[in-house]
Amino acid sequence: MKTTINELMQRSGVKFGTSGARGLADAMTAPVCHAYAKGFLQYLEADGQLKRRGEPVAIAGDLRPSTGRIMGAVARAATDLGYAPVNCGRIPSPAVALHGLERGCPAIMVTGSHIPADRNGIKFNKCTGEILKYDEEQIRQQVVELDEALPGGRGLDLPEEEIDARIDYVNRYLRTFPEGCLRGKKIGIYQHSAVGRDVLIEIFSGLGADVTPLGFSSTFVPVDTEAIREEDVVLAREWAAENGFDAIISTDGDSDRPLISDENGEWLRGDVAGILAARYLGADSVSTPVSCNTALEKCGWFGDIRRTKIGSPFVVASMIDAAFAGCQGVVGYEANGGFLTNSDFEIGGKTLRALPTRDAVLPILSILLLSIRERKPVSGLLAGLPQRFTASGRIQDFPTEESRKIIERFDDAKAIESVFGETFGPVESIDTTDGLRVVFRSQEVLHMRPSGNAPEFRCYNEAGSEERVQAMQRIAMEILLKLKG
User: Fold this and answer.
1) How far apart are CA 293 and CA 136, in angstroms?
2) The whole model's pTM is what?
3) Which among 209, 238, 369, 427 is most buried, taking Cβ atoms within 10 Å?
4) Catalytic center residues
């Protein structure tokens, strides 16, 4: 049966979001995932990025129960089109992306990132990096054969695992950063079910840190670095008090988004971590979504700041524009902490090659090294930033269409003030770059948008104190829940 990927999206419920295809694990059957992978590879052929049969296609995955069978379906698609699937194993998303970039081959990561284990996804990287929105549109138009005869259950076989991608990712840091540069630092590593949990231990201990593994989980834990679970807030504080760590570090499920705490076990917001990492690297251009903390502009450290829609493809596109404009140190980051580089950076006389996809290791490492360079604890780095505080939350099981209807009702300042004005005051400006971002005269911020990856409604707030932003977040979420009805 022939179908376009666009038609398959509607029929299967597996759809493109901001970071690739996502859907319920049960909906991501072998025929559906096989078709998605074929559509991606066919597009690369048509675009001239794959030039001959037999070329490698790198495949990796996270630790979800459904990941192995989806990897098998992706590998079968590569084989059916005459390419050579390379099983890179269960490694971080940036590791398989790096492998593809360095070898000039496509890289496919099977992951649902931070979302619950009953969902999964496929993230596509071209030979030159992440797919952008233009690429996504072209993939949607591909006509593929939907092979309903593919087996279910445990799925299709994978080639024997190869370890080169994992080794190269670890060596990216061990061979670039100075030997022993973290000596004297005591670091807790919150492992949970992150696919990069052992990689973190290898990198940070390899650079001289005294590391302690914490919180290992044999079942999948949906850690969202943008909406940190209360139990993880409590755990970090307890671990810090008991062990005297300089920081606690972790990642989300596919280890492309970082978590880093200060010495008190207080988790840093991802958009604050991004500012500090860019500072350490000496970036001259920063691209980041409109939802991120405005301390970026207020700190005065960066000459070129570009605000984008939410999602790494938009950040990547903005970084490309910055490089074309002549910027030399081009980086990007997201509110979830994922950090991207579109320039090479010199680190102690060695070159750290650009990696224009979300990475968790570089921002963590940069912040720790910045604290050493400035002789301050991580909390001291935060104290040196303009005091703008952000908070975010999500309402799960919230259909995208319902989210859009709520946003559409707030079509002018009067409509916004009729609902939020009593609490937040008069409206100063409205930004519809991505969802609805409202700046009030008080300079407090309310930003609402449907998630691009799951049926969730996201709400972001910014204010001048931690107490106020938490109050804003609580009130805004209560209002949105009432509007959902």
Assistant:
1) 28
2) 0.91
3) 209
4) 113
